User: Which sequence fits this backbone?
């Protein structure tokens, strides 16, 4: 997905993935080196793609805990594309009503609507993005 969203950027651009599940034991510790490194990666991004499953009609608590490490406007208008994956269309507004306000609070720029993908359609994600 990141490759498609970054089409037209510098060909030498790299795509880095932060798997928050790997930070679970450290995410609630301020200034923990692995969390600081993940935050620095986000702050250095030219384009940020934030992906979360829908949990209880919102984004994951782990993602919220990571966002708690950012202060107001710290993303300094980094273009950000929010993506959420859910079990049904019933939660498609979560990307705009739950994830968007937090991203805006920490300073993300929203050049496009968020993307919501139903879990059963993940196999066809490339076609969904290109549409």
Assistant:
């Amino acid at each position: 997905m990141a490759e498609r969203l970054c089409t037209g950027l510098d060909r030498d651009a790299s795509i880095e993935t932060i798997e928050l599940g790997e930070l679970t034991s450290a995410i609630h510790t301020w200034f923990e080196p692995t969390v600081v490194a993940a935050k620095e990666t986000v702050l250095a991004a030219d384009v940020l793609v934030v992906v979360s499953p829908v949990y209880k009609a919102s984004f994951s608590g782990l993602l919220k805990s990571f966002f708690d490490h950012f202060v107001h406007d710290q993303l300094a208008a980094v273009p950000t594309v929010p993506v959420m994956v859910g079990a049904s269309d019933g939660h498609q507004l979560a990307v705009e009503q739950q994830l968007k306000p937090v991203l805006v609070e920490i300073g993300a720029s929203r050049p496009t609507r968020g993307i919501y993908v139903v879990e059963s359609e993940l196999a066809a994600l490339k076609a969904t993005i290109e549409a």
